[in-house]
Amino acid sequence: MSSRPITGSGLDNATSAGERWGLDRLVAELRVSREETHSIRKDGVIHRPPSREKLAQVVSALTEALFPRHYGQYDLDGENIDYFVGHRLSVALDLLSDQIHRAALFVGDELIPGFRPPEAVELTRRFAAELPALRGILISDLRAAFVGDPAAKSFPEILIGYPGMTAIIHHRLAHLLYGLGTRLVSRLIAEIAHARTGIDIHPGAQIGSGFFIDHGTGVVIGETAIIGDHVRIYQAVTLGARHFPTEEDGTLIKGDARHPIVEDDVVIYAGATILGRITIGRGSTIGGNVWLTHDVPANSVVTQASLRNKVGGPALQKS
């Protein structure tokens, strides 16, 4: 067995890399940017950020608890299903409480809900108390998908295979947390859904029961959007803001209502862009690729052709 002399070490390699890339200078310049010229960190103790991986585990465990035979274990029966649900809830809620606390510490504001551990526990209790009602709303979403999509052959197919259903499960959980003031945690859960499905729903958006997103890729729903019951939308639909109000110094005014209101029983087809605090009246249909910035009366049909034929505003056909 031949032996070779050791000609280098980790330190040698690091020195070589440092010389090759000029790391000493880069590290020093980044320190100046980080600590002085472009600092974005509050002074004080540095805390760990909340973990996307842990929050993904929270959503997974909660989904298993809500739908144990579909996302959990197929062989559960009357004797062990409650034990399984209790276990998954315990795992999810323990993780969630920790992440709520961690998120508040990371932002560094003592007024943020969950900054102290007992607050995080209480918020998690309040969240958990809403889960039975939330499951009922999710069942209404599931039924809406089955009724609204001729390709859907069964509830299980929709529940585990439709990106729109995945997105709305995430959203309804995130929206509950958003309402409790845990904004960072809710935003991260929304981004987990966005990465998984291509559907971007701000957790602040208010969405009624029986909501169905068909296909879904590219859907964007803004923070202050309000969506009624039994609304169906298709891929690449945007419910966005038309403009952003500012203070006299140009600073954006945050929190103002700036996204559309979509009333009950509305259908919005693929590619439609609906902007501003406008109202789409109950029972209306918005055609594909429509660009809309005006209110729409109830029971109207808006198409590209009708918009082209109307000067100064959308042409509306009564259905």
Automatic annotation (TrEMBL):
For this UniProt record, the keywords arranged alphabetically read as follows:
Acyltransferase, Amino-acid biosynthesis, Transferase
Q: Which residues fall in a coiled-coil region? A: none
Which InterPro entries does this one have? Hexapep, LbH_SAT, Ser_AcTrfase_N_sf, Serine_acetyltransferase, Trimer_LpxA-like_sf
To which species is this protein native? Bradyrhizobium denitrificans
User: Matching CDD domains, A to Z?
Assistant: LbH_SAT
The similarity annotation says: Belongs to the transferase hexapeptide repeat family.
Q: Does the keyword Lyase apply?
A: no
Protein's recorded name: serine O-acetyltransferase
Give the PANTHER family listed for this entry: SERINE ACETYLTRANSFERASE (PTHR42811)
Q: Which reaction does it catalyse?
A: L-serine + acetyl-CoA = O-acetyl-L-serine + CoA
Superkingdom classification of source: Bacteria
Give the EC number.
2.3.1.30
